[in-house]
């Protein structure tokens, strides 16, 4: 399994600079603007772009600019879609199995306002839906843009530099052990990131199920208490 993954990664790192930047920018943009963050890994694309920058396949400033601008513009498009289409966005079938998390995102937005836009940038699901939710909630655009830009800049720089550091490790291993071994190490690093993300999603799903179970138990207890209250209420006066 390692060889095909390594071959795919090598092809990504060997494509022309303009093609690499275009592909990365498109993936990061679409993740937020078109609600495809569930299948298009913008985070992974930005990581690979950072690796490519360290290996000299793309200028680091260009990678940073593309990732950050794509993130900010993608969020802005998502915001406008939510503002103009509102509830129809929330009825998309792709969200049917994620209603619990969608409610969590709405609750976070209601509690934290613009800060929810910034925080949402760091969670894959929230990153895909928070801009549209902010638009649906009619958040003032200047407020949205402020937190959107802050989130896009910090997230983009963090992920790209993480890839850049991974690329530095790749370069050292390539010098010591050869390119094949370096590819294996890089694949292991990227697979580790993916595994971590999968485990985090599973933990979040388990937490949601536990919360739903707790809410169901509370509702059952409330109904039981109401029933007992009704049964122990004042009885009709007896006739003598």
- Average of pLDDT: 75
Poorly predicted residue ranges: 1-6, 236-240
Q: Helical residue percent? A: over 70%
Radius of gyration, taken over Cα atoms and rounded to an integer in Å: 24 Å
* Class by alpha and beta content: mainly alpha
Overall geometry: globular
Give the biggest sheet. Answer: none
Oligomer: single chain
The helix count comes to 10
The amount of beta strand, in percent, is under 5%
How would you sum up this structure, described in words?
This protein has helices spanning 2-14, 17-33, 42-54, 60-85, 87-90, 99-112, 114-120, 124-136, 141-177, 179-231. With 240 residues, it is mainly α. The longest helix has 53 residues, at 179-231. The termini are far apart.
Can you summarize this structure?
The protein has helices at 2-14, 17-33, 42-54, 60-85, 87-90, 99-112, 114-120, 124-136, 141-177, 179-231.
Question: Which key phrases capture this entry?
Answer:
0% strand, globular, mainly alpha, 10 helices, disordered N terminus, 240 residues
Task: Summarize the topology.
Layout: H1 2-14, H2 17-33, H3 42-54, H4 60-85, H5 87-90, H6 99-112, H7 114-120, H8 124-136, H9 141-177, H10 179-231
């Amino acid at each position: 399994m390692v060889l095909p993954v390594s071959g795919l990664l090598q092809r990504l790192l060997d494509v022309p600079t303009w093609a690499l930047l275009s592909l990365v920018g498109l993936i990061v943009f679409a993740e937020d603007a078109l609600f495809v963050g569930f299948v298009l890994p913008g985070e992974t694309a930005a990581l690979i772009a950072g690796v490519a920058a360290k290996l000299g396949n793309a200028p680091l400033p260009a990678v940073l600019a593309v990732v950050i601008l794509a993130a900010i513009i993608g969020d802005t498009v998502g915001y406008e879609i939510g503002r103009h289409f509102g509830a129809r966005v929330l009825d998309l079938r792709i969200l049917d199995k994620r209603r619990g998390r969608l409610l969590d995102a709405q609750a976070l937005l209601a509690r934290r306002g613009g800060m929810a836009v910034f925080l949402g940038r760091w969670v894959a699901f929230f990153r895909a839906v928070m801009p549209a939710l902010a638009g649906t909630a009619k958040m003032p655009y200047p407020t949205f843009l402020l937190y959107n830009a802050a989130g896009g800049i910090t997230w983009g720089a963090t992920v790209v530099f993480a890839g850049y550091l991974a690329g530095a490790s790749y370069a050292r291993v390539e010098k010591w052990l050869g390119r094949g071994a370096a590819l294996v190490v890089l694949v292991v690093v990227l697979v580790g990131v993916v595994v971590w993300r999968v485990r985090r999603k599973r933990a979040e799903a388990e937490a949601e199920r536990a919360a739903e179970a707790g809410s169901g138990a509370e509702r059952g207890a409330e109904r039981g208490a109401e029933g007992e209250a009704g049964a122990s209420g004042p009885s009709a006066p007896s006739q003598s």
